[in-house]
Amino acid sequence: MAPLKDETVEALRDTIHQLESRVQQLEAKLGSTGGNASSRGSRSNSDSVRMILMGPPGAGKGTQAPKIKDKYCACHLATGDMLRSQVTKKTALGREAKKIMDQGGLVSDEIMVNMIKGELENNTECRQGFILDGFPRTVAQAERLDNMLSEKNQKLQHAVELQIDDGLLVSRITGRLIHPASGRSYHKIFNPPKEHMTDDVTGEPLIQRSDDTAETLKKRLSTYHDQTSPVVAYYKKTGIWKPIDASQAPGQVWKSLLGVFEKEKQPSTTGSLLSRIGLKG
Ligand code: AP5
Description:
Layout: H1 6-32, H2 37-41, E1 49-54, H3 61-72, E2 75-78, H4 79-88, H5 92-102, H6 109-122, E3 129-133, H7 139-151, E4 158-163, H8 169-174, E5 176-179, E6 184-187, H9 214-236, E7 241-245, H10 250-276
Parallel strand pairs: 1-3, 1-4, 2-3, 4-7
Antiparallel strand pairs: 5-6
BIS(adenosine)-5'-pentaphosphate binds at residues 55, 57-63, 79-80, 83, 100-101, 104-107, 112, 134-135, 137, 141, 172, 175-176, 185-187, 190-191, 220, 249-250, 253.
């Protein structure tokens, strides 16, 4: 076979990039239209995600996580939602947790680690990966998560930090409305439901969280800076930390997140395709 010219190689690379973008667009479309269970199940490992979303209360973790869940068909484990579900069920844990949450403190590491461990082991939605929202919140939780994953020969891919000034969070938190059953969140001004105090999807009533007051927010922010900022520092050392400006509009924050995923994906998939046809350079 005659040697390939540089221009030919470049043209082939361009074609491969275009094909890959098209495949990703089609996959995203399939994900957003629901897809069927078998097509989700047949996704390759390169389409899975294992990530954590960090950021202070109101940064937008709960707003962005469901979109990532839809994109990757992964599970969204929000520890705050799990605790609130215990509160609603009036379990012993729920009663204890409510006191701590309303004071802006943290529930014990042991309880939270076991909660996540149970989900990662038993929740079938987590087979295609996971998005951890609100966990880990202490360095001890981060270390335990690393141990849990290394037992399964897995590693986190992204530790995304939603960065935003404390001053912008008061209006976000005090205007938030929640659909308790799904964890879906709205905002009275920034993201209002179609009908007053009513969930768009189920038509059920929305509520305000009991810890969403300006006073409790101050305590939650101080807990975040004291106990969770060191977790950010922990991931900065690992090379998987990615900061995102969370003061932007929600659509823009989502675009920044997509940028994080694309950056990671492009070199490896393109590399593997190129190497398969002997053009990796
Ligand atoms: P948790 O439920 O995790 O609360 P949090 O971390 O304080 O975070 P939030 O849910 O308040 O904020 P968010 O970033 O999800 O914001 P959202 O997207 O809704 O935890 C609650 C408590 O449980 C803790 O205080 C602790 O006690 C306990 N706990 C939980 N996990 C624990 C753990 N691992 N260890 C120990 N204890 C634990 O957005 C907020 C509002 O802003 C919404 O109304 C939204 O519509 C709006 N909004 C979002 N993005 C934008 C935007 N870009 N522009 C304008 N508005 C926006």
